[in-house]
Write a structure and sequence with these properties.
Blueprint: H1 9-35, E1 110-117, E2 123-133, E3 141-152, E4 159-160, E5 163-164, E6 242-244, E7 252-258, E8 261-266, E9 274-279, E10 284-287, E11 295-301, E12 304-309, E13 316-321, E14 326-329, E15 337-343, E16 346-351, E17 358-363, E18 368-371, E19 379-385, E20 388-393, H2 397-400, E21 403-408, E22 413-418, E23 424-430, E24 433-438, E25 445-450, E26 455-458, E27 466-472, E28 475-480, E29 487-492, E30 497-500, E31 508-514, E32 517-522, E33 529-534
Antiparallel strand pairs: 1-2, 2-3, 4-5, 6-33, 7-8, 8-9, 9-10, 11-12, 12-13, 13-14, 15-16, 16-17, 17-18, 19-20, 20-21, 21-22, 23-24, 24-25, 25-26, 27-28, 28-29, 29-30, 31-32, 32-33
Length: about 550
């Protein structure tokens, strides 16, 4: 009879422990594959799911999309975000306050502005409508659309000055000086609906025109040069050359001008600024953005307006096209994009998505984004003209401070423009001429660099500060504090002369220039308002 061997209980116990551990791992991994919340989460084929681009805490470390290299998060995920706030409103998002829950949260649809004649001979008016995109979600956003809608059918009789003509009536009244006012009285045979002009041979004379020093009744009220202080040779004083654009009890700031259009940031109707526009040719104001967040620092070229927009929490760059009345998001990155500038179809800005600030560009004609600078130091405050982009650059370190660099898109070359001692900042460019503020003389001065001659020119040499220069053609405008308050000055390169633009005792800042018009911000009414100095007014040339 064989004896049974002694059972090895230790071996059995160890085997049972191993089996138990394997079973727990199988259960845990199965749970992970279903919920995506285990230590190792498997989705689809193969290995663990990516810690990026889904706004989930895939590895259970309490952090959402945590990566050492944020550049991999191409969809706008927020690396290291502990509450997994999602931009697509999945179940893992944190709390948020939607911008809008329905269309009426964005505004009330309505007609706006005066009626006008369409190309078909009928009367039209602009109609503003509002829509709430992604209503009730974290990504909700208000959009505004302005459409041209039929206001009155003229039944083939024709339209003039925004009204239908009577049956059989033709527009026979003259408007010789093309100022928008005709030679007919209301009801007179051939009246086309325009207001009667008191002098149809002078484009500066019509009802409610700007009165100027010319010994004429410009505004058709029966008085000559009323309200003006005129010199014996019929020149105006400085104040007669300045036109107030805004008149509100809130701040307006950072104006920019192109052609007949002025844009600025405005606190009307909101505790946060929106972008507004004034058209000098039609004397009408238009609100461009309607959003409860901040929209600031607009720039304009042609029919396109760009600005900084904080509706998505971090600053982005947006654009509005006046020709189509449409808005477009230019940047969609979780880091800051600032200080946009525009020329033709190219938009440039300062971008903080990498280790240091860089310059980026978006080409509207190709709908593509391009990184212009790739340097570990900071580059900012860009300006653009044609194929040339200029900016301030800190790569010179403490020895030279900020310098001026340029990138030529036609040659793909980066060029150091100025690396003088101290700091050169806040650039602007027109043609081959670059202007900037410079502290090499112990205070802020304005300098110019001419690319055509590769030469630098000191524009101001006053012991007080001059800064914030803008250039158009041969004219440079800038801020100046030599008179104990902020004034606007202009330097004319064609005559090599400096002229004082504003001479009030209050602060006037933030100049910009287009042709003969200088726009600026003034505290004449105890809060910031937008004004222009118009050099085309008779007697106002500088």
């Amino acid at each position: 009879m064989k004896k049974r061997g002694k059972v090895n209980t230790n071996k059995i116990n160890n085997t049972l422990i191993i089996i138990g551990i394997i079973s727990l791992l199988i259960i845990f991994l199965g749970y992970s594959s279903i919920t995506g919340k285990g230590v190792f989460s498997f989705k689809g084929k193969g290995g663990p799911s990516s810690q990026c681009n889904d706004h989930l805490d895939n590895d259970g470390d309490g952090k959402c999309d945590f990566l050492w290299n944020k550049a991999y998060c191409t969809d706008g995920s927020i690396p290291g975000d502990s509450d997994c706030i999602s931009k697509d409103d999945n179940d893992e998002r944190g709390s948020c306050v939607p911008v809008c829950n329905n269309n009426t949260d964005c505004g009330t649809n309505s007609y706006t502005g005066d009626s006008y004649c369409g190309n078909d001979g009928n009367v039209y008016r602009d109609y503003i409508s509002y829509t709430c995109e992604n209503a009730g979600k974290c990504t909700s956003n208000c959009n505004q659309l302005t459409s041209s809608l039929l206001w009155e059918n003229c039944n083939g009789n024709g339209c003039s000055n925004g009204v239908c003509l009577s049956n059989g009536t033709s527009s026979s009244c003259t408007d010789v000086d093309t100022d928008g006012f005709d030679s007919c009285s209301p009801g007179e045979s051939g009246d086309d609906g325009k207001i009667k002009d008191c002098n149809d041979g002078d484009p500066n004379t019509y009802p409610n025109a700007l009165e100027i020093c010319d010994s004429k009744d410009n505004d058709c009220d029966g008085s000559v040069d009323e309200g003006l202080t005129c010199t014996p040779d019929n020149n105006t004083t400085n104040d007669n050359c300045i036109i107030q654009i805004t008149d509100d009890s809130v701040n307006q700031m950072n104006p920019a001008i192109y052609g007949d259009k002025i844009v600025w940031e405005d606190y009307t109707n909101s505790s946060d600024p929106n972008i507004f526009l004034y058209d000098l040719s039609t004397k009408t104001k238009k609100q461009i953005t309607i959003n409860p967040s901040r929209q600031t620092k607009p720039a304009i070229y042609g029919d396109k307006i760009v600005w900084i927009d904080e509706r998505n929490k971090q600053p982005d760059i947006y654009m509005y096209d006046l020709s189509t009345n449409t808005e477009k998001l230019i940047t969609n990155n979780p880091y800051y994009q600032l200080d946009p500038a525009i020329y033709d179809n190219k938009i440039v800005w300062e971008d903080k998505r990498n280790i240091s600030d860089d310059i980026f560009m978006f080409d509207l004609s190709t709908n593509t984004e391009r990184r212009i600078t790739d340097n570990i130091y900071s580059q900012g405050d860009p300006a653009i003209y044609g194929d040339k982009i200029v900016w301030e650059d800190s790569r010179g370190g403490l020895e030279t401070g900020y310098d001026i660099y340029m990138f030529d898109l036609s040659t793909n070359n980066e060029i150091l423009i100025i690396n003088a001692p101290m700091t050169q900042k806040r650039t602007d460019i027109y043609g081959d001429k670059i202007v900037y503020e410079d502290t090499r003389n112990g205070n802020f001065d304005i300098y110019l660099y001419d690319l055509a001659t590769n030469s630098e020119k000191r524009i101001t040499d006053n012991p007080y500060g001059q800064w914030a220069a803008k250039i158009y053609g041969d004219k440079i405008v800038y801020n100046d504090i030599r008179n104990s308050n902020n004034d606007i000055y202009m330097f004319d390169l064609s005559t090599n002369t400096e002229k004082r633009v504003t001479d009030s005792q209050i602060n006037e800042v933030e100049p910009d220039i287009y042709e003969n018009r200088i726009v600026f911000r003034s505290w004449r009414n105890r809060h910031g308002e937008i004004f222009i100095y118009d050099m085309s007014i008779p007697g106002c040339a500088l």
